[in-house]
Design a protein that fits this description.
This protein is α+β, with helices and mostly antiparallel strands. The protein contains 2 helices and 4 strands; from the N terminus they run ααββββ. It has a 4-stranded antiparallel beta sheet with strand order 1-2-3-4, with helices on one face.
Length: 144
């Protein structure tokens, strides 16, 4: 409400209105607002980009591990597991399986047993070039 005796122009100045009866934003205010919006959108775009790269990386790692597990589960049974190396490719992933007698001071190679521990090494290379290696020990029949 206007105080008595106060002119409309004085009341407008006191309440923040511009002189001349014009209201609205100046060009500088509009440009500042647009700059703030542009900076905000750029920051949001960066966050989305980083999030997408992270998701893609996780998906590739999961696919890599799943392929490795599939290759390991196809390990032949004890009778067919012979020392040597075998190469192959599955779903674009190159792999190599190497089997060798397990050498350890805890295992007596002259002990009279039908079984001998064998070191099995799996090496898998992803299409992007990343390499993953898994070592395990399996019991195999002793030759002879």
């Amino acid at each position: 409400m206007r105080a008595e005796g106060e002119s409309a122009r004085a009341h407008g100045r006191r309440c923040g209105f511009r002189s001349g009866g014009r209201t609205g934003f100046t060009l500088i205010e509009v440009l500042v607002a647009l700059a703030v919006i542009a900076i905000s959108l750029t920051a949001i775009g960066e966050l989305v980009s980083v999030s997408m790269r992270g998701t893609l990386s996780i998906e590739q790692r999961v696919a890599f591990r799943q392929t490795l597990r599939a290759i390991v589960t196809l390990l032949p049974n004890r009778q067919e597991l012979v020392p040597g190396s075998v190469d192959g490719s599955t779903s674009g992933y190159d792999w190599r399986r190497e089997v060798a007698p397990y050498a350890s001071t805890l295992v007596d190679p002259k002990a009279p047993t039908r079984w001998q521990p064998e070191a099995v090494e799996f090496t898998v290379r992803s299409p992007s070039g990343q390499i993953l290696r898994v070592d395990t020990i399996r019991l195999g029949k002793r030759p002879g």
